[in-house]
Write a structure and sequence with these properties.
Blueprint (H helix, E strand, L loop, with lengths): L4 E3 L6 E3 L13 H18 L1 H17 L3 H8 L1 H18 L17 E5 L12 E5 L27
Antiparallel strand pairs: 1-2, 3-4
Helix pairs in contact: 3-4
Amino acid sequence: MPLRSGRCVHCRCLFVLNPRLKDQRYCGRSECQRARKRHWQRTKMATDADYQLNQKAAQKHWQQEHPSYWRDYRKRHPGYAEGNCRLQKQRDQRRKILAKMDTSSRINHVKAGTYYLLPCSVDLAKMDALAQKITLIPESYNQPGNSCKQGLDCLPETHAR
């Protein structure tokens, strides 16, 4: 029986096909096998909901077992933390709007003032109105910090809350 050859989809080298493997597309080099596994995992994550849930649960478990991993990593690799901080500031500058997408839009449909929120269903036990004051912060307001991580805690008392 003559040996058949194929071309590796990762390194593009010719290799002898294993007769026991029906659809062999990668050669036996370790780099190509890692590429094969990455491709399989990427495809599995995109198509298999159970696999996604299992991977998410495994990651969550690992994070719970190693809660200080990233904090320690940033301490051991200060260059990584500095570079990440610099890149985050660049992303913040490009975005200019640092808010959740579902909280506001550029067009304000709500005017500043005091509103009373009432339940829309009469089946509720309490029928009290809830007063809420809405203060709009203009887009031109000069924010003291460069990053969204500072939050509104650092605003002067007249503008906070």
